[in-house]
Give the backbone structure.
Amino acid sequence: MNPLIPLLVVIPLAAAFLIMIVGRFIEEFNKYFALLVLLLLTFISFYFLCTTGGKITVYKVGGWEPINSIPIGIYMVLDGFSVILVCIINLIGLLSAFYSISYIRRYTAGNYFYALFFLLIGGMNGVVLSGDLFNIFVFLEISVISSYALVAFGVESNELEASFKYQVLGGIASFLILFGIGFIYWKAKTLNIADIKSAFGSSSDKTTYLFIQILILSGFGLKAAIIPFHAWLPDAHSSAPSPISAMLSGVFIKAVGIYVIVRLFFNMFIISEPMAILITILGTLSMVIGVFLAIGQWDIKRLLAYHSISQMGYVVMSVGIGMILLSRGVKADIASLAICGGLFHLINHAAFKGLLFLNAGAIEYTLGTRNLKGMGGLAKSMPFTSATSFIASMSISGIPPFNGFFSKLIIIIAAVMAKFYLLAILAVIVSIITLASFLKFQRYAFYNKADDTKDQNIKEVPFPMVFSMVILSVICVLLSLLVFPEIRHAILTPAIDILTDPAKYSRSILVQ
Amino acid sequence: MRRLLRFARNDKGNNEALIKKRNQPTLKFRLAKRETTNDMKGMTIIVKKTTQLIAGMIFIYGVYVIVHGHLTPGGGFAGGVVIAGSLILITLANGGDFLKLIKEESGTTIVESLATILVITIAVSGFLFGTKIFFNNFLPKGIVGHLISAGVLPLYNIFVGTEVAASIFIIFLSLVIFKEESKE
Amino acid sequence: MTAYIMCFILFLVGLYGVITRRNLVKIAVSLSIMEISTFLFFALIGYIDGGVAPIVDPADPVKIYVDPLPQALVLTAIVIGLATTAMLMAVIIRLYRKYGTFDIREIKKLRG
Amino acid sequence: MDLAISIIAGFMIFGALYAIHARDLLSSVIACGLVGYSLVICFLLLKAPDLAIVQIVVDTITLIIMVAVVLDSSREESYLKLDTQGYVAAVTGIMLIVILLYFYAISIKSLDVLGTSSLRMAKHYIEGAAQKTGSANLVTGVVFDFRGYDTMGEAVVLVTAVLGVLTILRIKGKKQE
């Protein structure tokens, strides 16, 4: 019963309302208060990262103890997997908020922006820390509704249309998830994830499980924009203000999409081979199709958004390979290697995709356009943006000293060792195409000759924006340290242990 | 429904051309034409007076539902929604300018933010006083079936009721205000 | 079990509407139909034959009650549904003011 | 009970089909409202008075908001011929529906029949819950005490929607340069 756990959810929610009340009377209150609160949250989450290790901490909200080892209250669960996500959410949130100090000056209604931003963060923290199925739904709705509003923050016509599309598909996803939760309650008569696992364990009824799994997978797949469900993502992520794009693309689709899928399919459902194969196929499809859709784009943010789909495909694919191996019950070490690659890539993606969206925001802030054809020669006038975006581009396309290389390498090695040669080859090809696409981005944005018609007073963006980008690029380089076994053992191994030993999660929660 | 239609039509002001255009679609109401000659915003005086009477009763019913939430069907959400319904009824009957609507509807947002913050405060006070457990029902429970019983639940009911009423009313108002503003 | 099947048909009718309709208001209506069917589903799960509404009468305590948990979930979900509908309607009214039409194809055409 | 609910649900399906296919948007919206009111009757039959109170008011308010939006417009659904994309969507939609329905009908066979629900988590929400929470209304007890954390989240969802609506309905999004 660590009393700090609920603070991660309560502080951002309370901060949102304080900003709405106090920010009305005090100018500039929102910015500094937001930074302060996010600094505190980041501190708490890194404290958890250092102290959690392999143990699973349960917080029983309301103090309702289980009766006959059946939980009756809501549980908040903090383990090795969720602590990684908490750190990503709050760290990227802090940097985005710092970046927004100057970026958001062009928009009206700063108070609303910061309040919605905190609701987004609070909702994601709630999803990640929750151990109860319906509670996940409620917090998912908080973060999703605030992201609907943030996507339409500029109230231009394309932003509104993107928000509408996002809301319709998000609404379908929400009701599919709700229906799935109803089904699970009907079958298991309980809502606690660990308890559902033990209630499911006794009976074997394939069709019902398959139906439930498909409902849940399509619901959360829509939130995570896996390929047949991806239609909303490019519009929504490219229309939002850039710090929000960084949050949505870097964190949001992971926290409410991939995290929940992985958590539920490893720790709640019994791992079954058909579902594992389906997940792997979906991941591979998103990896391949996403990158081909990205090649033709000339709008920077759309290009980055399509790459998000593709990179998430890597994560889903490698996690799926791990699932297949686990369901067959063979080669547990390779399964844990594949899952390790997936999680590593998930962390890396948060860093470099966040950075790339911040770069795109900086370019848009200076030039007022997002079209690659209207740019050129920015390397001289914007040195920091150019350098950081170079690091991020090399990272995402897997060039050796940077973090993206190592995670892709682990994924490919795992695929080869598990004898999925086709998937390994596809991963390499997609990586090469990604490189080509980002070379295009670099060349057109930073190194081409500038147009003569453009006025020449292009300056580097203000200090807060530069600062966030530099910090993120340092993180990008530092994250490649995770490849060393000692550091990996401290951070990634607890998460992998929980996922590869499906019974451990439910066992250790129910005895507490 | 009929009231609503008339409200929406009247909302358009006294512009004859607009009203003619309005009347073209399939559904027609006899009362609508008579009202266009009426200078008053909103509906007729009869409707207004009746609404004031009924809305008061609905409001009191909402308060009853909230306060008895732990004894009878209903509770914070039901009662809050009923109160919001009564406020919306008054607004519909009296027309948009009854409330002197301006862009910053600051009052209600503060009420609703404060109510939420109070809910969170009560939750956290459970955290502080009640053996360090978030959302603890730390007050004495009392006797089942009495009005003052069930610890903090009535307090939750009251604050959530306020918050729900304010939120729903504000959603309605902001749509109405937007329609007024963007007409020009 | 007929009731469960009818309930799911209602859900699918809503899904069909969302997929095929090209009118903003119709899409919102279809979404709210899906929402309604989900609430019905939850209420059906919690029903127990011969049960009474879950309100304890201290004078006469021994009774079968219907399951209060799905009702609590629906209570939460109804308000969430209202929130999503409000957001959707706000975007729709804004889009209508921009384009003067509810038809999603014409909106795409106008945007170019 | 099964029969009664089925009949009302059948009525709701007709209402929903009409709502989806009506030419006049006002009729469509009102038909949707009727579906919601039928749900209130279902709730009353299923012994859920709390839900009935909330649903009847929420449905009215949703209806008011929707009507307010529709009345502001030309109200007619512009009738354009289905293009290729429309046909594809319709065919995929119907196929998806048939597959899902078949699958659903098989998969619910092994589950509890209507009216014979057993309890696991909720058993302790009923047995002695009135003494534990002090609330005679068990639903309020569950909503505010056993699952109070959910309720806080829900109150926050409503506020988020308010902030979202106010954000979207700003007249000017960006400051003048």
Notes: The CA atoms of residues 149 and 312 of chain A lie 24 Å apart. Residues 7-510 of chain A form one domain. Chain A touches chain D through 58 residues (CB under 8 Å).
